[in-house]
């Protein structure tokens, strides 16, 4: 991890850069996979699965037996943990339900808005280097709460052609049964274009590596919408003198271990905390099974010493992290100053892992600076909002002349006429 002390503001622009693959070559790969899947459907899907996941599949769809068997393949304790997390995620996301509010605009003019589920949605569950069954809960629960009719789940198979039983158990717990063994660009292409076995959907959700994220961006060319660009994980931690260096190190490593292209940023005003945290990172890293992955992520991660917490917050707002942890005493005084972040964790005991698994918030969040203009996944992501209005005869009599005047000024006399006829 690189250490920088008191950087000038003019250097911040370089410090907020994320490690990225060369976009051009990524896009070329994405385009050719989409093209092959458009032409050859399932057979291209199988070829790409052999190429990128090293497994030769005969059947892409997960059978009912495989789903049912998943229960016997994971411990009772894990089953209970998944159910507890599900209840918490459900509680938080249910609270996001909006009830139509009728607004009296003027006498005889009422407007309101109602939500309707997106009928067909595709959920991508990452599985390249870790089976992220928690993501099944994060996407499946709001999809079900919203009332989406067709929910198609895609996730890469392991080298035996199997899906991790915890992914299948989580899907079963949420009530998802249409599951396909396909990952990466080819999964996103199948969900966008449809193949003999995988139906096309209207919106694609889910995080993934740079290939998946690039494919989701490209899918938009086919009029498919996407949740958000949720790429390689990241966390930014702001710590003062009362922070606990071992907690801070553990939180940084928790996101570094996701992938070699993850990035973690540590900001502090206290030089002693900086030194102790770097030592802790070194010690804790050795104990992690994914130490090679985390070490590579740390190679393009930075620890920065600043003069004040205000300066740390300003830097964080410019960086726009996926996760922000405020390991500072008076975090309540800084909440209002946070402008760009996917999800925020307050105080020494709010570890980021809580949000990843079980506290209730969603872990599918904007990365790579997209927290400047995107929100994380929520119930809203799975619905469209339709506006309604009812004008009575009194309403059009009152408002009509204003509409007529505006229509005439725009030289749209057809619009004006639709009002004038009703005023007679
Ligand atoms: N932002 C979020 O909300 C969030 C949440 C969870 C996970 N994540 C991120 O998701 C990512 C998961 O990545 P992963 O790799 O473990 O799983 P993944 O499922 O995203 O990607 C695996 C797939 O990548 C494809 N692939 C691998 N090498 C390729 C190559 N050379 N060319 C073309 N395709 C290739 C394969 O098809 C494989 O199935 C991590 O980066 C993690 O940080 C983000
Ligand atoms: N931290 C990830 C989002 O960046 C989500 C996750 C899933 N499992 C563990 N973590
Ligand atoms: Zn995580």
From TrEMBL:
Catalyzes the sequential NAD-dependent oxidations of L-histidinol to L-histidinaldehyde and then to L-histidine. The lineage of its organism: Bacteria, Pseudomonadati, Bacteroidota, Flavobacteriia, Flavobacteriales. It comes from the Bacteria. GO terms for cellular component: cytosol. Its EC number is 1.1.1.23. It catalyses: L-histidinol + 2 NAD(+) + H2O = L-histidine + 2 NADH + 3 H(+). Pathway: Amino-acid biosynthesis; L-histidine biosynthesis; L-histidine from 5-phospho-alpha-D-ribose 1-diphosphate: step 9/9. Binds 1 zinc ion per subunit. This is Histidinol dehydrogenase. It comes from Apibacter muscae. The gene is hisD. Substrate binds at residues 233, 255, 258, 323, 356, 410, 415.
């Amino acid at each position: 991890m690189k250490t920088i002390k008191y950087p000038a503001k003019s250097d911040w622009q370089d410090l907020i850069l994320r490690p990225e693959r060369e976009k051009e070559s990524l896009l070329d790969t994405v385009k050719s996979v989409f093209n092959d899947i458009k032409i050859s459907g399932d057979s291209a899907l199988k070829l790409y699965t052999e190429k990128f996941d090293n497994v030769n599949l005969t059947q892409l769809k997960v059978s009912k037996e495989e789903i049912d068997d998943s229960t016997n393949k994971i411990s009772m304790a894990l089953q209970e943990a998944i159910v507890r997390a599900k209840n918490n995620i459900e509680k938080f996301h249910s609270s996001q339900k909006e009830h139509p509010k009728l607004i009296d605009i003027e006498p005889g003019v009422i407007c309101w808005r109602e939500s309707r589920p997106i009928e067909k949605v595709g959920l991508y569950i990452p599985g390249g280097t870790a089976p992220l069954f928690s993501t099944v809960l994060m996407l499946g629960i709001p999809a079900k709460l919203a009332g989406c009719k067709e929910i198609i789940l895609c996730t890469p198979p392991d080298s035996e052609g199997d899906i991790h039983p915890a992914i299948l158990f989580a899907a079963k717990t949420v009530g998802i049964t249409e599951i396909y063994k396909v990952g990466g660009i080819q999964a996103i292409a199948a969900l966008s274009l449809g193949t003999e076995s995988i139906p096309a959907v209207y919106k694609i959700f889910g995080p993934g590596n740079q290939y998946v994220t690039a494919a989701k961006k490209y899918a938009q060319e086919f009029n498919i919408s996407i949740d958000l660009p949720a790429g390689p994980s990241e966390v930014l931690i702001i710590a003062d003198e009362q922070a606990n260096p071992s907690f801070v190190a553990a939180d940084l490593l928790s996101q570094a271990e996701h992938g070699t292209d993850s990035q973690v940023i540590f900001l502090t005003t206290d030089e002693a905390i900086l030194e102790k945290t770097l030592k802790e990172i070194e010690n804790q890293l050795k104990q992690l099974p994914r130490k090679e992955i985390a070490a590579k992520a740390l190679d393009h991660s930075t620890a920065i010493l600043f003069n004040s917490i205000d300066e740390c917050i300003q830097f964080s707002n410019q960086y726009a992290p996926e996760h922000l942890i405020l390991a500072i005493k008076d975090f309540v005084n800084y909440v209002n100053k946070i402008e760009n972040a996917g999800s925020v964790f307050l105080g020494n005991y709010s570890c980021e892992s809580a949000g990843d698994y079980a506290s209730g918030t969603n872990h599918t969040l904007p990365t790579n600076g997209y927290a400047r203009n995107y929100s994380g996944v929520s119930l809203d992501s799975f619905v469209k909002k339709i506006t309604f209005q009812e004008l009575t005869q009194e309403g059009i009599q009152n408002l009509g002349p204003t509409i007529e005047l505006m229509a005439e000024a725009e030289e749209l006399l057809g619009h004006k006429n639709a009002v004038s006829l009703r005023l007679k």
